[in-house]
Design brief:
With 118 residues, the chain is mainly alpha-helical. The protein contains 5 helices and no strands. Helix 2 runs parallel beside helix 4 and helix 3 packs antiparallel against helix 4. The longest helix is centred in the C-terminal third of the chain and has 32 residues. The termini are far apart. It binds zinc ion (ZN). Zinc ion binds next to helix 1.
Length: 118
């Protein structure tokens, strides 16, 4: 018996729902699937991001617009966290490898552009 609550179970439930098979399966403790469950337990990963588009499309097509929206929110969260990570990684490279050259350079450029030309 599967828990029905973890990331893997929720992903499987969403896929089953798209195929109109969730009500028929007996592999989960509970077959319910709500926006709250998705927002709480469904996490988009490097692997599942590839399926998200199809999942969102499938949910919309089957009339589960709110669940599709919940998956979209989670996907958006995944991407926004990656952007933060990219910035963090870039700052680390600048500090440790380029010895703050980029930061210093961008400060210099910012100061130059801020100052009124005389
Ligand atoms: Zn599970």
């Amino acid at each position: 018996m599967n828990c029905g609550m973890c990331e893997k179970c929720l992903r499987t439930k969403l896929v089953l729902l798209c195929a109109n098979r969730l009500g028929l399966t007996k592999v989960f403790k509970k077959n319910d699937l709500t926006v709250g469950l998705v927002l709480k337990g469904f996490t988009v990963t490097d692997v599942s991001t590839q399926f998200c588009c199809e999942l969102i499309r499938g949910l919309r097509k089957s009339g589960y617009k709110n669940l599709a929206r919940a998956v979209m929110v989670k996907r958006w969260k995944y991407y926004s966290e990656r952007i933060v990570n990219i910035r963090g990684t870039f700052a680390w490279i600048d500090k440790n490898i380029l010895r703050g050259m980029v930061k210093h350079w961008s400060h210099t450029v910012n100061n130059l552009t801020k100052q009124p030309s005389s």
